[in-house]
Amino acid sequence: MSETANMRVFRGDAESGDWQDYEVEMEEGQVVLDVIHRIQATQAPDLAVRWNCKAGKCGSCSAEINGEPRLMCMTRMNLFEPGEQITVAPMKTWPLIRDLVTDVSFNYEVAKTIPAFKPRAPEADGTYRMMQEDVERGQEFRKCIECFLCQNVCHVIRDHPENKPEFAGPRFFVRLAELEMHPLDTEDRLELARQDAGVGYCNITKCCTEVCPEDIHITDNAIIPLKERVADRYFDPIRWLGSKIFGR
Amino acid sequence: MVEYERHDYDVIVIGAGGAGLRAAIEASAQGARTALICKSLLGKAHTVMAEGGIAAALGNVWPQDNWKVHFRDTMRGGKMLNNWRMAQLHAQEAPDRVNELEEWGALFDRTDDGRILQRDFGGHRYARLAHVGDRTGLELIRTLQQHAVHKGIDVFMECTVSRLLKDGDRVSGAVAYWRESGNLLVFNAKSVVLATGGIGKAFSVTSNSWEYTGDGHALAYWAGAELIDMECVQFHPTGMVWPPSVRGILVTEGVRGDGGTLRNSDGERFMFNYIPDFFAAETADTIEEADGWYEDKENNRRTPDLLPRDEVARAINSEVKAGRGSPHGGVFLDIASRRSTEYIRRRLPSMYHQFKQLADVDITAQPMEVGPTMHYIMGGIRVAADTGAATVPGLFAAGECAGGMHGANRLGGNSLSDLVVFGRRAGLGAVEDAARVSAPEADDAQVKEIVSEMRAPFERDGAEGPYEIQRDLQETMNSLVGIIRTESELLEARERIDGLKGRAANVGVYGHQQYNPGWHLAIDLQALMTVSEATARAANVRQESRGGHTRDDYPGPNDAEWGNKNVVIRQGADGEMEVTTSPLPEMPADLQELFEE
Q: Is residue A247 pLDDT above 70, yes or no?
């Protein structure tokens, strides 16, 4: 039972580009990435797309499908009406390389600026003890597959690229929160969260949470607690007074 | 004169999954100037898809466990074809590597007293797999990635190595291209570590990701190194079978480790009918005993649902052939009727998500449909167990692209531990070797020849494109070199591969060099052809069934003739592929005693 998909795909590079329409044979159960692959195999062998696992685990195939940021491999074609035109565009926040492939190196640069995990000393037998309930908070954050859809959709940099040097973005607030709540970590990253990572820019519109394919509660579980910890440290008048008097 | 970027390193590591990252971390920690080169973005390698866990005899859940039990399980699972020394090092060092991951920030699931929790898996006598739900591979790669980022390693992302360079007999670097621009790079390196993973994209039904085109196997072979056991391919028993577009995607063995069971269309737990003599003494033969084993391992034997993967895959294949399959040509995997919804969602969140989103199946309420999928190649580059050194000087290999560790069949969970144990060892080996030589200088003539071959597909605009050639190859491998093999089909496969090689040699692409996937595939086809030919040839030579290699015309193992031999592949002086055999390294007496039970 094959149907025809009506695809409108962005083709172009950093200089110029345009929409290109493709009619594609489609089979039962297919996802958008299958249809893109079929375009490659039959109509446009040079159509650039980044993908790896096709199972929602690697976070490579992020795109904007009918304007919505999603993983192409986890977007079923039966989500759309039969015959509906489906647009596939590259993520808007990153510089375009070609077609659906963008330059996400910003994220790899930010990752380098976050100080490494620094564990406390182990138990006498050389290993650690942690309770399941204490690791679960961090485990939620470590589900992140680095698809960078949260980064892509965040207004702070999507609409204001000039903020990029001062704003690490939701993915890295998740990383900072994870380290901050890690039962073994001893490093202090709150100054970084406040200053260089710019957690204060976030005005909690939850767009990042909405697009997360791993259902991480980015805003509620990572960003808000991070903001609270920063506020407690830097903006609590009693603590401020204490630090002046007792030097801590 | 060809234009290229030039880079000079002590050690280059090709591939950035678990093995490559661990090798680069070690090389850099030893003070070597180190580059890590990967086809994809960092952190996207196939390691992220590992689900169930990392096997290590930590003894946290069952204190009776130790490296000797793990070693024995590994060798028996591999049908004794393993390189004993690799299996020994692996079993001995895996616990240290797991603890090291925790020191580097990994958050494994916990026991009640706060230690690393371990889960049951096929072929392991005790619950042995440290894990994070069913996304252990992601935890491993992210931990290594986040550790590596601060270690002064130069990372070349979306950069594909196309050929190794030689200086006389010695490997001395590599030629690569940036996928983004098509621009060329030449690496001069005192030693090279291959950590490129497997060959799954030579098959149509596979759990493997885009990158798995056999690059490392082929790079080593072209550079004169030997490959062993290329006939030993693992078909994982449980891949998704429906819908068609997701056929082959992995369903973790953790489903059975956590209590799931296989059933046929009659509702029968058919694995009880497929217990081989080799494992009869340690396998439950009643439903009561099998179900009791999850809680009480002292008084019950292991459920046959958790026989090694080769056994389970063949059993599923037989059930489907006998007409007792599920509607879409698999069998049923049922955890819904055996465990609570809460338990399933906590232990197997990715599986829940995957079936819900891709197949409209709720695994807490309905059984899954599963069937065999090409998952892993045990065979690979022949290496020295302690150092990862290949048979060509200057070349090292670790992880899936190296052979020997897993023999004829790999146990689940032994792959992630393999990556970190032998990634570290290959990194060390490469650094020690690099210290013995002076900096090499690329030979212009070699570079020129390699580059003209890489760019040739653009000269043939209008010729056949690469996609159909790959599809035909995948179809050939799947149908003729698949889970059950026979001489006539293997010979037909050889013939077809010869034809496909001809087509691949004349493949054409058009357009620009900037992120052109057609061109990238045209280059990858060369490696795919080499590894497919190696697998088909080796499979015809081994005239017995052992582990992942099953011959319809030679059912059962032939210990006297084949039990002590590796099948060896190398490139002959005339450029043709040569197939020979060589004796297995002999196991010392004290280890042999472990098998006399």
A: no
Distance CA B222, CA B232 (A): 21
One-letter amino acid at A35 equals V
- Of residues B115, B139, B242, nearest to A142 (C-beta): B139
> What tens digit of pLDDT does each residue of B392-410 get?
999 999 999 999 999 999 9
Is 0.90 exceeded by the ipTM?
yes
Whole-angstrom CA distances from B334 to B262, B269, B315 are 6, 10, 16
**Contact by Cβ (8 Å): A185, A121:** no
Whether B281 contacts B342, CB under 8 Å: no
Q: Which residues of chain B fall short of a pLDDT of 50?
A: none
How big is chain A by its Cα radius of gyration, in Å? 22
Round the average pLDDT of chain B to a whole number and report it: 97
pLDDT of residue B332: 98
Fold classification of B449-559 is: Methane Monooxygenase Hydroxylase; Chain G, domain 1 (1.20.58)
CA distance B204 to B200: 8
Contacts 24+ apart (CB under 8 A), B177-181: B177/B454, B179/B39, B179/B515, B179/B520, B180/A97, B180/A101, B180/A103, B180/B514, B180/B515, B181/B513, B181/B514, B181/B515
- B118-119 and A101-102 strand pairing: unpaired
Tell whether pTM > 0.90: yes
B256 labelled catalytic: yes
pLDDT at B461: 76
Fold of B5-232+378-434: FAD/NAD(P)-binding domain (3.50.50)
B124 catalytic residue (yes or no): no
Q: What is the mean pLDDT of residues A140-167?
A: 97
The position carrying tokens 């995997």 is B333
CATH code for the part of the protein at B237-374: 3.90.700.10
* Spans of all domains in chain B: 5-232+378-434, 237-374, 449-559
Contacts of A72 in chain B (CB under 8 A): none
Does the pLDDT of residue A161 top 80, yes or no? yes
Give the phi and the psi of residue B259 in degrees, each rounded to 5.
120, -5
Q: Are B529 and B497 in contact (CB under 8 A)?
A: yes
Q: Residue A143 carries which DSSP code?
A: T
Q: What is the pLDDT of residues B474-503, one digit of tens each?
A: 999 999 999 999 999 999 999 999 999 999
Interface with chain A: mutation pick from B108, B138, B159, B181, highest number of A CBs within 10 Å: B138
Domains and CATH numbers, chain A: 3-102 (3.10.20.30), 105-246 (1.10.1060.10)
Cβ–Cβ gap B243/A122 under 8 Å = no
Total length of chain A: 248
- In this prediction, residue A240 carries a pLDDT of 65
